[in-house]
Amino acid sequence: MAEQGCIVGVDIDPGSSPLSSKAPRFSMAVLSSNGSLLSKAEGVGLRSLIRRLWRLKPTILAVDNIYEIAKDFKDLVRLLRTLPEGLKLVQVTGTPRDPKPLTEVAASYGLKIPAKPTPLQSAIAVAKLALMGAGFEVKVFEPETRIVISRARSYGAGGMSFDRFKRDARSLVLQATRELCEELRSRGLDYDLFTRGSRRGFDRSLVVVYAPKGMLRGAVKSIEEKGVKVKVFEPSSEEIRFIPREGSDLIRAKQGRYLIIGVDPGMVTGLAILDLRGRPLLLVSRRSMDRLSISRLILDYGSPLIVASDVNPPPTLVEKLSSMLRVILHYPSYSLTVEEKRRLTMEAEENYGIRVKDSHQRDALAAALKAYMHYKNKLEQVEAHLRASGLKVPLDEAKALVIKGLSIQEALRRLVKTEAEEPPSPPFTPSTSSKVKEEIKALQEKLLKQQNYIDKLEAERERLLNRVEELTNKVEELEQALSRQRSEQALKIKETMEVKKLEAQVESLKALLSKIEAELSSLQDEVAKWKEFTINSLRGIYRLIKPVNALTPSSVAEAVKEYSIGRGDLVLIRDAASGNREAAEALVKLRVAGVISLTPIPLSAKEVFIKGSLPFLEEPELEVNWLRGLPFLPAEPLDRLMKQAKEKVEEESRRLARSSLSKVLEEYRQERLTKT
């Protein structure tokens, strides 16, 4: 039967090792929540240990070295997955990077164990230390899945359609991103969204989903058919972290270190961490930082108290981060201007010797500094009260309580009460010496002064409470007056609703008119361009060339069908890299006047052109003007180059003919000699 809240301590037996081919053996001890020994066992195998853990359902499995129960990182991950849900694995001797001897840790907690304890004694000791709050919890963070959505095709070579292609592609990415986010919300999955682009469309979006890849089946498939490219992947590995427990030395060292966090989310996220005196502790900017990576980084520096943004309303990621960390969300009444952010960060650079490297760091630091300035007066008042009262309470704890909403008096009273509730020190019996009597008298006088100060604070508190009551009554009167005004205004609003509707229709028609005028202007520009090229073509300044996308049979056939390529036409090939003999022969058969390629032409295709006496140009230094997918080239340099190309092809053709004739004659002589 399971013992509610029990703790299991484990230590490996001598001669056993997870690296050995033989299964390791362990000694184990089970303690109740009050520290009494419930059971113990020696020579327990790993499988048996796991079965017992499932039967006992303990809250903690304590060890002095996690690599006594697992041979490596992957083995440890596998073991953690086999443990009962809710069971914490605790290493009481510190992290693997900085371990301490078990005897030293036990001594620091007042626990006596032999200098060379047996495995069973060690198992009992680690269980007791875990019960006292010692050590680090071994934690595997939840897996996450990343989904990248981008355009599925390029924007094209340019021309009049370039902007339209770009708008269409960005619109598809925006639509697919919205549909994916809606699907994730309907499934109740938590996620963060990072985008590059504007409200009218995205060039690229990254969705970080805090769930395994297997839980997204169907969600991603639905957007893959939207004309976008989708990439889904999980981070390279699960991360094992060692979290200090409440009773550990590291936690005790970090208690009271509260932080103000500034975040500027995006494809590149800026992060700034300040202490409660406004001093920067960290300023970084990294690509695609999600909430988990941000929170892990923050917790390495202390306890977050405020998460701040430089814009109003704050970004969704900042809202979710503050909710996850359960801290105050601060944002300005209006979005900070670039000039304000520069002024804030330049002062910090001068005062603390830091360097702001980019706009993301600047925005994050400005957000944190703005939050600090919002509470600065209150924090200085806390310091002044503590100096005046002489109370010995943690300063940052008092500041944290005030930021959380308590008055200074309430915060100090709570901390004084907490200090008073700490375990009393051993009883002390004063001697009759005069020195001791003087000390007692001084302490009594100090106590009297403190009591007088407390009385003054109580009187001030009473005065403030009366003031609060007066202000509350005033607020109620104002709210009643406001309610009457709202009723009167409601009638006026109802009368103007129809006017607003008509105004909205007018605005809509104006927008439609602006859109039509913009399209008309674009078409007029295109017509002017067509007119210019037509006149220049008639004058012989430009020459229209018929395009072929690639030197392949299919591309040639498509171009012939679309542009009626035939005898005497000049043909421009965009990409001849994948060209072959069959496509080249097709152009020769069409009796085109020449071929111009923007890329190198394969040797096999050149041979066909030469045999067919078809002049060709490779990567000519000519300016190509595109209009509606049709290329125009300057006539004079084109004719000159084509003439040179024709002469070159004819010369090469004659050389091949002579070579072929010589070969035939040589073969004939050899044949005659053989017969004689």
**Number of E-type strands:** 23
Summarize the amount of helix as a percent range. 40-55%
Measured between the Cα atoms of the first and last residue, the distance is: 112 Å
Whole-number mean pLDDT: 81
Low-confidence stretches: 248-256, 421-433
> Strand order within the widest sheet?
3-2-1-4-5-6-11
Task: Choose one word for the global shape.
Answer: flat
The CATH topology assignment of the largest domain is: Nucleotidyltransferase, domain 5
CATH class of the largest domain: Alpha Beta
Q: Which CATH architecture of the largest domain?
A: 2-Layer Sandwich
Number of domains: 6
What does this structure look like?
The protein is an alpha/beta fold and 676 residues long. The protein has six domains: 7-140, Nucleotidyltransferase, domain 5 (2-Layer Sandwich), CATH 3.30.420; 145-233, Alpha-Beta Plaits; 259-387, Nucleotidyltransferase, domain 5 (2-Layer Sandwich); 388-419, no CATH class; 501-534; 542-663. Helices cover 50% and strands 19% of the residues. The protein has 18 helices and 23 strands. The strands form five sheets. The chain has a seven-stranded mixed sheet, with helices on both faces. Strands 14-13-12-15-16 form a five-stranded mixed sheet. β4, α2 (73-82) and β5 (88-91) form a beta-alpha-beta unit.
